[in-house]
């Protein structure tokens, strides 16, 4: 029996799905989709050890990922995600890998450089926030979104070049930021009124389609987040910038050596050669988020409100553009 397909757009891709996604932006039905998402029996999947909660395996052009509480998922050649959910996984739980790990793998298979972080569209370009787990990437993006700046992405950042003679840009993903309850409250939201990410997980989903970027924005700066006694922003040298960005690339953490080929390193080297990378520290006190917003939007040193004639990053044709 054929089921109606749902159509969306995210990361610059036309998406056709057999299941609905309340997180994604609806798009008109397209004759040809860039990515198809299907529920499938996955009879071709390898056997996974039952005692391990998360496992990833690669066979040919397919990457399989298995979570004991979520199910088995497959990313095929950058064009299709198939999944067989665990019996106890709710629809919201089933969508978590589809919008996170599997989407990152698909983008990686398509040749797109991906980072683990959040990004906001400021007046003269995009600001990307990366850093270790718990550093405040989503919180920083949420504070800027609450201040009126559109969200580009939270979790997976897709760095692309719309044309050979244009700068590196970040594609819009979907209008959702995942926040812990205290962070949600700090940016003016009521946690109990926000959807939960999954059962027994306190994180909330803040969805604001009216504060979402509708197109890709040139990447003007990358901020590596950390905590300190006071707000401080320091530009990193080339080596420090490369190491910081390398540690936050998205797909290689799941596919290991398959994600660290020569082109991958070349992408990152070109990225930090053209886009400034800063170490940004802030106190853990969430009441000081307005000061962080002011620093990022007002300070001549850190603001992206640069002159129209300021140089922007141009990448060699083969580095950032997704495969045709």
From TrEMBL:
Q: Note the InterPro entries from the entry.
A: P-loop_NTPase
In residue numbers, the region (Disordered) covers 300-324
State one molecular function term (GO).
kinase activity
Specify the superkingdom: Bacteria
Which keywords fit this entry according to its UniProt record? Kinase, Transferase
- The protein depicted here goes by the name Serine kinase
Taxonomic source organism? Longimonas halophila
């Amino acid at each position: 029996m054929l089921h109606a397909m749902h159509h969306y757009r995210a990361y610059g891709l036309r998406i056709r799905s057999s299941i609905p996604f309340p997180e994604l932006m609806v798009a008109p039905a397209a004759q040809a989709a860039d990515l198809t998402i299907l529920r499938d029996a996955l009879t071709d999947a390898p056997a996974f050890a039952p005692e391990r909660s998360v496992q990833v395996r690669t066979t040919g052009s397919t990457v399989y990922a298995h979570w004991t509480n979520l199910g088995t998922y497959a990313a095929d050649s950058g064009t299709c995600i198939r999944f067989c959910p665990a019996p106890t996984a709710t629809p919201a739980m089933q969508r978590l890998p589809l919008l996170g790990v599997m989407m990152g793998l698909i983008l990686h298979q398509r040749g797109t450089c991906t980072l683990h972080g959040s990004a906001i569209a400021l007046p003269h370009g995009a600001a990307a926030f990366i850093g270790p787990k718990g550093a405040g990437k989503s919180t920083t993006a949420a504070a800027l979104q609450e201040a009126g700046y559109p969200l580009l992405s939270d979790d997976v950042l897709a760095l692309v070049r719309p044309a050979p003679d244009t700068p590196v840009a970040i594609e819009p993903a979907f209008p959702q930021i995942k926040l812990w309850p205290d962070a949600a409250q700090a940016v003016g939201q009521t946690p109990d009124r926000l959807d939960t990410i999954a059962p027994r997980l306190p994180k909330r989903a803040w969805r604001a389609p009216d504060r979402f970027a509708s197109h890709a924005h040139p990447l003007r700066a990358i901020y590596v987040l950390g905590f300190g006694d006071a707000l401080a922003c320091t530009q990193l040298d080339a080596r420090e910038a490369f190491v910081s960005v390398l540690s936050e690339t998205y797909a290689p953490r799941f596919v290991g050596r398959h994600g660290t080929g020569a082109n991958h390193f070349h992408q990152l080297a070109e990225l930090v050669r053209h886009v400034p990378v800063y170490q940004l520290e802030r106190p853990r006190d969430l009441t000081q988020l307005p000061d962080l917003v002011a620093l990022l939007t007002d300070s001549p040193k850190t603001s992206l409100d640069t002159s129209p004639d300021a140089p922007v990053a141009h990448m060699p044709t083969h580095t950032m553009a997704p495969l045709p």
